[in-house]
Design a protein that fits this description.
transmembrane helix; about 80% helix; transmembrane; MFS_trans_sf; MFS transporter; transport; 22 helices; Growth Hormone, Chain: A
């Protein structure tokens, strides 16, 4: 397939200095995206007791309620982003999800909280597909994996700040205040994005008309995506990883609350902190910093080795995903909270290596005018399967093991997490299978 001349000619390059600035702005926005998405994980146990919720309700609130609208709206917003002003779309999305995050702090019951989380999902649907497309236009191909990995640092860093900030504020002022503080910065960043990010595509009416004419109909765009076997292998591998990752993120804090509360309370006291604040900071550092290192390294390795062999874009995720499983198991089975935290530092380092190479591969598998759509379809699967079903699944299995099987809440969450983590072997196999076709199917 060849690039449409009209669409390509309408994209102007940006200076390296401006590109660095824009990537930093987009990174901060994505950090807030994940902070607002993930802060509910550290607040889950206080919310559970305050609103008298079951684990399946926690899973629904942290996952499916958010994911349904996030995934459904992602594709139509991406279609608008193929020809529209992407910075303004990102700005509007950031403002919307931030306001709904603030609204979570005023929820009085489960239904109201779920509706607010749905609102957060609606807002966040407008962030990543246009951001991926914008970054790809800002960045030359040989640096694309690193640039997308830099943007993806928002995932572990957002989790870090969400856990740490949420835990400390919840200890001091309650979980409602934590939502209020988390939502406020996004409104400022929405204004910065709207006023300082540049749309590199021409604003001339004639060029806009040419882009719209060159944009393939949705059916044609999906036909291109459907034809790429590599895309679907990467997409389902990533969705399974998200299924594990979001499920674990939603219930790691409850796991420690239920299995290691006494030990962690003593340690927290030595630092002058409450249990929730200490656990939030600790999990944020353990999961966030190691995840940030893994995300950065994944982009660097993909650019370095992908220049020699495109199969590196999927080999790196395949190997690293498999390597993370034993560390999770060791942490879950440990009777020591400290040892468990040390073991849980390794999986984020390994499991985030896929972001840069995976997203870069997807952007390169389709023509430029279909990039936002391809990103949205990828995120549709990742979030519907991973975010939508991961926390809900872990919560439901935890309830089953805790109640009907009679093992109690502590063992219920432990063995539920154990079962889901083993799916990582399937994700690794799918990434490895993509090695067979990625070189032949790469387009741009």
């Amino acid at each position: 397939m060849t690039e449409a001349p009209a669409a390509a000619a309408a994209v102007a390059p940006v200076s390296p200095g401006y590109r660095r600035y824009a990537l930093c702005v987009l990174l901060v926005i994505y950090i807030l995206n994940f902070l607002d998405r993930q802060i509910v994980s550290i607040l889950a146990e206080p919310i559970k007791h305050d609103l008298h919720l079951a684990d399946w309700q926690l899973g629904l609130m942290t996952g499916l309620a958010f994911a349904l609208f996030y995934t459904v709206l992602g594709i139509p917003i991406a279609r608008v982003a193929e020809t529209g002003n992407r910075p303004r779309i990102i700005a509007a999305a950031a403002g919307a999800w931030s306001l709904f995050t603030i609204a979570c702090g005023f929820a009085q019951n489960f239904v109201q909280l779920v509706l607010c989380r749905i609102g957060v999902g609606i807002g966040e649907a407008g962030c990543t597909p246009p951001a991926h497309s914008l970054i790809t236009d800002y960045t030359p191909r040989e640096k694309r994996a690193s640039a997308l990995a830099f943007y993806s640092l928002g995932i572990p860093l957002g989790g870090l700040f969400g856990m740490g900030l949420g835990g400390v504020i919840a200890d001091a002022h309650g979980w409602r205040t934590a939502f209020l503080v988390a939502g406020a910065p996004g409104i400022l960043m929405a204004l910065i994005a709207a006023t300082t990010l540049v749309e590199p595509r021409s604003r001339l009416a004639a060029d806009l008309a040419a882009r719209r004419a060159a944009r393939p109909p949705f059916g044609e765009a999906m036909a291109e995506i459907r034809s790429k076997r590599t895309f679907w292998l990467i997409a389902f591998a990533a969705a399974i990883k998200a299924f594990i990752g979001y499920g674990a993120a939603a219930f790691l804090a409850p796991f420690f609350f239920r299995n290691h509360a006494a030990e962690l309370t003593l340690i927290a006291g030595d630092f002058g902190l409450g249990l929730t604040g200490f656990l939030g900071i600790t999990l944020g550092i353990v999961l966030g910093l190691t995840g940030a290192v893994g995300t950065f390294m994944g982009g660097y390795l993909a650019d370095k080795y992908g220049a020699r062999d495109l199969r590196a874009y999927v080999s790196i995720p395949a190997i690293s995903t498999l390597m993370g499983i034993p560390f999770y198991i060791a942490g879950l089975l440990s009777e020591s909270a400290v040892f468990a935290l040390v073991m849980f530092a390794f999986p984020p380092l390994l499991n985030t290596l896929w972001y840069g190479p995976g997203y870069a591969a997807v952007q390169g598998l389709v023509r430029p005018q279909n990039r936002a759509t391809a990103s949205a379809v990828l995120l549709f699967l990742i979030n519907l399967i991973g975010l939508g079903l991961g926390p809900l699944g872990v919560g439901a299995v935890s309830d089953l093991i805790s109640g009907p099987l009679g093992l109690g809440m502590a063992e219920g969450v432990r063995w539920s997490l154990m079962i889901f983590i083993l799916f990582g072997a399937l994700a690794s196999a799918l990434f490895w299978m993509a090695r067979k076709t990625i070189r032949e199917e790469m387009t741009s």
